[in-house]
Amino acid sequence: MNNAFALKGNILYTPVCGRIEAAADSYLVCEEGKVAGVFDTLPEAFWGVPVEDFGSRLILPGLADLHVHASQYAYRGLGMDLELLDWLEQNAFPEEARFADLDYARAAWDIFVEELAKSATTRACIFATVHRPAALLLMEKLEQAGLAGFVGKVNMDRDCPDCLRETTGGSLEETRRWLEQSAGFGRVKPILTPRFVPSCTDELLAGLGALGARFNVPVQSHLSENLSEIRLVGRLCPSSRYYGDVYDRAGLFGGPRPAVMAHCIWSGEEERARMKEAGVFIAHCPQSNMNVSSGIAPVRLYLREGQRLGLGSDVAGGAHLSIFRAMTDAIQASKLRWRLVDDSLPALTLPEALYMATKGGGAFFGRVGSFEPGYEFDAVVLDDADLPTTRRCTLTERLERVVWLGDGRPCAKYVAGRKLF
């Protein structure tokens, strides 16, 4: 059969939040870049297709990173004693200004893309910088590496250093040119990226909303991350009912075009209700929330409310690119919230964290993040042979040890049916 193959091994995935399906010594079949199914024996229809036998290794859906700043990779692990707005001024903005130099951008993107390609992440929502040529170059390099996802040219026309501040008209014109120039890419797509309300005027946001409608592209930004930030938004936009209302008025808050908002730690009841109504995705970035002293997001509440929820590394607010690390941080942070803040919200479980890392976040990219038939064939293969133990572990327990103890790097990786290594 043309364009079909199978992987053999121990297959785990989460078709429903909170439940792991584990199929020992089974076959995962890919046909035309999509999942044909998981089978204990290879169906007759697929006899003769190439089979790659991974023995006792674990096979998972590829992980989704809903929020990462590629331009910040060079200084991850630095400035972790600062709060958000100070951290931006001292670390993020000076580094991002360097991407006006395309040679510097090329060197930085090479490092970021190589590390992302080696990771278990197969889909990502990525912030570039305000510089259109640098954003296009990042898209080219991701495409060449075989990865998939969204890249945004960042927009800022106020409250940022002069070297990064755009005029409102100039920002919109550069964004229009970037959208036109990125139309020919394959699995790497453009996404509108107003940095956040403090750095974007109402006029800029409205213009981006119009471009989103014209080019039919999704949106990514930050929302209700930090109390100082929220107070600043209140002063800048006194007519808004809540932070997300500023995006909503500009047509940048879900609805006909998907939106993903990072953090949402302090989102109130009205904001959360609107997010659910509009289908806005929440990118939970627990390590970043702790590193820049923002708070502990009520993730259990979001799950109870039926919010669309995934995980983000938020490099360099988060120091690690691994979404496995984001899973463990999410579990630990939820334990602290349960114990110290609200004992009505129990801690996350591993199956729930895995769902957020795969199918939950993957939904932003379409039918991605599961091994159910018809889903895009994103898969990673993990070898736990270097994590010896005298204990006889179930497949789920082996997965748990990999998540908590492994280095997060797979031994094989597939994106939309294409093997990367």
General description of the model:
It is a single chain. α2 packs parallel to α3, α4 packs parallel to α5 and α11 packs across α12. By secondary structure, the chain is α/β, with parallel strands linked by helices. The strands form four sheets. It has a seven-stranded mixed β-sheet. A four-stranded parallel β-sheet has the order 5-6-7-9. It contains 13 helices and 17 strands. The chain starts with a strand and ends with a strand. The mean pLDDT is 97.
Describe the structure in brief.
By secondary structure, this protein is of the alpha/beta class.
Q: Roughly what percent helix?
A: 25-40%
Termini Cα gap: 23 Å
Strand order of the largest sheet: 3-2-1-4-15-16-17
Mean pLDDT: 97
If helices are DSSP runs of H or I spanning 4 or more residues, what is the number of helices?
13
Overall body shape: globular
**Largest sheet features:** 7 strands, mixed
Structural class: alpha/beta
- Following the backbone from N to C, one meets helices and strands in this order, namely EEEEEHHEHEEHEEHEHHEHEHHEHHEHEE
Number-wise, the strands total 17
Radius of gyration: 21 Å
Strand-residue fraction?
A: 15-25%
* Unreliable stretches: none
